[in-house]
């Protein structure tokens, strides 16, 4: 099993690119990773470490490829008390529900007993044209917390 399971939710690809970049940085640091784009719940370990990276679209909505996982967790209510996770959101501060998708995932995982490791990273695409840049800085401190 991977040390870190990266889960991306993306509409236009930016969260997928960020997740791939973070997987690369984690592997360089000696972690093993598994990268899943919009997985189903049965494909995920319910313990260990997840890193959720998602963009927000519409009115704070989850991307279409991540909404089914969210719904499945909400419906099945799995015990995630053995799970630790990190959270990275990508959005635009010009919208009222900036990074609303990662906010929803963050709250849902916590409600199911998962424990977030470190601070959540919310990336404003208007401030960071290349969202991989702030994500790379963030993952440096996150790696220390999960080591």
Number of domains: 1
Helix proportion of residues, in percent? 25-40%
Order of helices and strands: EHEEHEHEEH
**Uncertain regions spanning at least 5 consecutive residues:** none
User: What proportion of the residues form beta strands (DSSP E)?
Assistant: 15-25%
Approximate shape: globular
Given the helix and strand composition, which structural class is it? alpha/beta
What fold name goes in the CATH topology slot?
A: Rossmann fold
CATH class: Alpha Beta
The average pLDDT value, as a whole number, equals: 93
- How can the largest sheet be summarized? 6 strands, parallel
CATH superfamily: Flavodoxin domain
What is the architecture at the second tier of CATH?
A: 3-Layer(aba) Sandwich
Describe this structure in words.
With 147 residues, the chain is an alpha/beta fold. It has a single domain, classed as Flavodoxin domain (Rossmann fold). Helix content is 35%, strand content 23%. It contains four helices and six strands, in the order E-H-E-E-H-E-H-E-E-H. Strands 1, 2, 3, 4, 5 and 6 form a six-stranded parallel beta sheet that branches. It is globular. It starts with a strand and ends with a helix.
């Amino acid at each position: 099993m991977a040390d870190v399971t990266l889960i991306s939710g993306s509409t236009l690809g930016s969260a997928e690119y960020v997740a791939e970049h973070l997987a690369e940085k984690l592997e360089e640091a000696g972690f093993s990773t598994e990268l899943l784009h919009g997985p189903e719940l049965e494909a995920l370990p319910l313990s260990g470490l997840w890193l959720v990276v998602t963009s927000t679209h519409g009115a704070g909505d989850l991307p279409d490829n991540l909404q089914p996982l969210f719904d499945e967790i909400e419906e099945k209510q799995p015990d995630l008390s053995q799970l630790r996770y990190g959270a990275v959101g990508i959005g635009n501060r010009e919208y009222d529900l900036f990074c609303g998708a990662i906010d929803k995932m963050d709250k849902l995982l916590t409600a199911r007993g998962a424990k977030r490791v470190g601070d959540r990273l919310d990336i404003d695409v208007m401030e960071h044209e290349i969202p991989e840049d702030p994500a790379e800085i963030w993952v440096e401190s996150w790696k220390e917390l999960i080591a």
